[in-house]
UniProtKB/TrEMBL annotation:
Required cofactor(s): Mg(2+); Mn(2+)
Domain Histidine kinase: 233-450
Lineage: Bacteria, Bacillati, Actinomycetota, Actinomycetes, Pseudonocardiales
Reaction catalysed by this enzyme: ATP + protein L-histidine = ADP + protein N-phospho-L-histidine
UniProt protein name: Signal transduction histidine-protein kinase/phosphatase MprB
Native source organism of the sequence: Amycolatopsis australiensis
Subcellular localization: Cell membrane
């Protein structure tokens, strides 16, 4: 099982505290040991200087005899070695060896090893006749200091680990509280609630998680609202042809429509069935746009030739609706990378939307211009146009259908979303804006094809 955040933070704090105490203890041990040895050597040297000031050349002090001096320093664990002028060194055998090894003929300070043990030695010369003495101190203090230091390190480690465990547990609980709230809110979102919000508080990273979760809840609410609007618009669009098909089919079945009436009923059923088929096809293609199996056959396409071919077809339809169709395009080829079949579908879809809202006598325009390294193909109309706030959302599914279906002839709201997806997949851009003719303009911008490429 995965550990909790509080548990992991506690373990990290314990590990950091433990490593810090151990490293600090090891460094301090060496420093303390060196400092202690130097302090002991300095203290021994000071005592040797004091003793030297109390002795004369014969080793008999004018104020303190050597025997009394030896008794004083021996109480501190220090051995005294004395050598009178012309005589031998007297004192403890091991101390005599240590003093002799360092040398009694001069004032010296040092550390010597005798029999595997270390000793601190201070030698002093008294007078001018060669009398000398030495103070010898076993260096056992280092081991004692080291044992005491280990105990102190262990004590500090234990205290540090306890403090680190408490701090880690408290920090983990404090950090985990907003995360637990965020997890609970995510569970509510998964259950279908969209009104849940998480307080944006705590450290920056935790606050970012809460803010992102709140943004996700808002986005889901907006997305589901648009989905409901889209379903309503599609349902409304399906209901009209289905009503006509059902009504005329019942008339034929009941014998109400016979002869020429039956023929007209059949034609109406066929026309509405084709409308339903186009709607279902648009829905399927829109659903496949984001899938990997949706493929485009992109090649070099002459936009000028495509616009002129489209104009030949739409000229007849515009004439039936008494709409003036005009075409502006360069005489030279304008080649862009695109799928010719899908591009023709896009132009036809935009033209159908434009013709639906263009009144008799008003213009509809196919315009192709070249600027720099790009080409722009626009379909414009002289209809009522859109409100300024509607152009940015014109390609969202069902938005325009929901806003204008009670005021003007509109489509299902799928066509513009479909053409936008197709144009985007071909590497171009599609924008909407007001047209000089008074209606709306839908403009596709393509990069020019590299004519030097094979």
């Amino acid at each position: 099982m995965r550990g909790t955040l509080a548990g992991r933070i506690t373990l990290v704090c314990l590990a950091v505290a433990g490593v810090a105490v151990i490293v600090a203890g090891l460094v301090a041990a060496r420093l303390v040991r060196t400092t202690a040895d130097n302090a002991l050597q300095s203290s021994l040297a000071a005592q040797a200087d004091v003793v030297a000031s109390q002795l004369d050349e014969t080793g008999i002090g004018n104020r303190l005899g050597v025997g009394k001096v030896a008794d004083v320093v021996r109480g501190q664990g220090i051995s005294v070695v004395v050598r009178r002028a012309g005589g031998q060194a007297l004192g403890d055998a091991v101390a005599v060896q240590a003093a002799t090894k360092l040398g009694l003929g001069a004032n010296r300070s040092g550390r010597v090893t005798v029999g595997g043990a270390q000793y601190l030695v201070e030698t002093r010369v008294v007078g001018t006749r060669g009398a000398a003495f030495a103070l010898v101190l076993p260096a056992r203090n280092a081991e004692t200091t080291q044992r005491a230091l280990v105990r102190n390190i262990l004590l500090a480690l234990g205290i540090g680990l306890l403090v680190a465990a408490a701090a880690g547990f408290v920090s983990g609980r404090l950090l985990g509280r907003p995360l637990r709230r965020a997890a609970a809110a995510a569970g509510s979102l998964r259950a279908g609630r969209r009104d849940v919000r998480v307080p944006v508080e705590g450290p920056r990273e935790v606050a970012e998680v809460a803010g992102s979760l709140n943004s996700l809840a808002d986005a889901l609410a907006v997305s589901e609202a648009r989905q409901r609007e889209f379903l309503l618009s599609v349902s409304h669009e399906l209901r009209t042809p289905l009503t006509a098909v059902t009504g005329f089919a019942e008339a034929i079945a009941d014998g109400v429509a016979a002869g020429p009436e039956a023929r007209r009923a059949g034609q109406t059923i066929q026309r509405e069935a084709q409308r339903l088929e186009r709607l279902v096809t648009d829905l399927l293609e829109l659903a496949r746009l984001g899938a990997d199996e949706f493929r485009l056959d992109v090649a070099s396409v002459d936009l000028g030739a495509l616009v002129r071919d489209c104009a030949e077809v739409w000229q007849l339809r515009c004439a039936r609706e008494q709409v003036r169709l005009s075409v502006t395009a360069p005489s030279s080829p304008v080649r862009v990378p695109a799928d010719a079949r899908r591009l023709r579908q896009v132009v036809d879809g935009l033209a159908e939307n434009a013709l639906r809202v263009t009144p008799a006598g008003a213009p509809m325009v196919f315009s192709l211009t070249v600027s720099g390294t790009s080409a722009e193909l626009s379909v414009r109309d002289g209809g009522p146009g859109l409100a300024p706030e509607d152009y940015p959302v014109a390609f969202e599914r069902g938005v325009l259908n929901a806003r204008y279906r009670d005021r003007r002839p509109v489509g299902s709201g799928i066509g513009l979303a479909l053409v936008h997806g197709l144009v985007t997949r071909m590497g171009a851009t599609l924008t909407a804006g007001p047209a000089p003719e008074g209606g709306a303009a839908f403009t596709m911008t393509f990069p020019l094809a590299d004519v030097s490429a094979p």
